[in-house]
Amino acid sequence: MATVRKDAAAPAAREAAVTGKGPVPPGKARSRTKRSTLPLTIGSGLLGLLIWVVLANIGIQGFPGPLEVAERAVTSIGDGTLLGDALASLRRVLTGFVLGVALAVPVGFLMGWYPVIRGLIEPWLQFFRMVPPLAIIPLAIVLMGIDETPKIFVIFLASFLSSVVSTFQGVVSVDSTLINAARVLGAKDRTVFTGVVVPASTPFILVGMRIGLGASWATVVAAELIAAQEGLGYRMQQAQLYYDLPTIFVQLIVIGLIGLIMDRALLLAERRLTNWQERR
Amino acid sequence: MSPVVSGAPKIEFRDVSHSFALGGGEFAALDRVNLDIADGEFVTVVGPSGCGKSTLMNVAAGLLEPDAGEVLVDGEPVHGPSPQRGVIFQQYALFPWMSVRKNVEFGLKIAGVGAAERRRRAERFIDMVGLTDFADALPKTLSGGMKQRCAIARAYAVDPTILLMDEPFGALDALTRVQLQDRLLDTWSRERRTVLFITHDVDEAVYLANRVIVMAARPGRVHRVIDVDLPYPRTEEIRLSPEFAELRREVWHSVYHQPTPMERTSS
């Protein structure tokens, strides 16, 4: 009796042994890489801080040290300007980004699915991809005034352009065998699209969104340097007028940190949503 | 040469020709192929690479419209794929974002089967291929053999009358391949679905089939048809018998000692 049971379980185990690809406890390999990079990350941070201290002490004119910058950060957190500026910048980025992605995903799918639509849209896309969104700012200000609209518009443009290209790439690179597999199981175009093309291109879309968010964040700060009443870029612009280097440093660090946090958040979402991918 | 077939054929290839554009010229993958496959028959197709084996299968599946001729299934011409003709691909073609269970349920969902019935039917076929313990696993966690068993369960779930298999075990190791061959024969002998099985492995072709179709390349065509008069169930004993060895030699000879296109034109 016992031998019979053992035999029944054997094929799967043997196959797993043969290929070495049996069910692996999730996260085992990942936690090992995490453990090995963390000390390096901390070490790298400390090293950077050390170089900063050295640079400040050998006396470049007006170059603030970490302590001075930290003090300024505490003051601007205390009087609420830092939070206000960060929120103003974030609001612009998120509005433009969400609008951009919301348009990019359907347009990218249409381009990937219908060659005619691709042929009509692609030349314009390739052209505008070569124009940095920042170069649109003067035009946008003239046409749309100096309030929120032109800033949100250029962010929308930045995120749209990067997301639309990757969505389109995702659709055209869907494995044709998967599409055939769905068709022989009875799937018509509609089911092939929603059941195969959409999930198969999700990894591409998420990568495009990450690139788009990075581009949006870079664009908002630059747009605020040109015309704004609040925001991280605006604050730096003001500080520049008064040779206020510590404030510039605070803004730069906050810009970097927020960008990093947003990128990590999307990366995490990407990992979660595309957990099914075979990663090498 | 032509086999004795009782009743109307299940699948008929009628003068099927198909060419692909190749470097400015044309490549004749299939040249006036005629072939009848009886209901419940297990037919294997072997031949050198480029002989149009896969094209033959894609045409039968309805994934490829031939340049000329037609394929009839139960007397009806094939236009486009149908769940009646299940296909097993060499690269498994599982949907990587779906669990084994969801993969197997996919065709049933399209057919409009309700959730409870879908789950029950899927479970039956997952059990048939021995993947019950892995029903909720994602394909990436499965070995090659397990993936192909999942693909077989997915094809069976929609209850096709014909199975078209394109080198399904070609990417597997020898041991797994033999295990899956025996499982396939076991299921086939119980249910007698018509099977058209493409392979490049002469042993596999003889071991599984009622009839082996040997194809020749440039242009792709039927070269020989060899009946395999070995009883089912096929066992290790049969695999090691002199009759099997003789058939294998015959198939091997007609696959690997085909007249080259040069010889044919000069003769």
TrEMBL record, chain B:
Residues 11-238 form the ABC transporter domain. Keywords: ATP-binding, Nucleotide-binding, Transport. The keyword Transport applies. Pfam families: ABC_tran. InterPro entries: AAA+_ATPase, ABC_transporter-like_ATP-bd, ABC_transporter_ATP-bind, P-loop_NTPase. The keyword Isomerase does not apply. CDD domains: ABC_NrtD_SsuB_transporters. One of its GO terms (molecular function) is ATP binding. It comes from the Bacteria. This is ATP-binding protein.
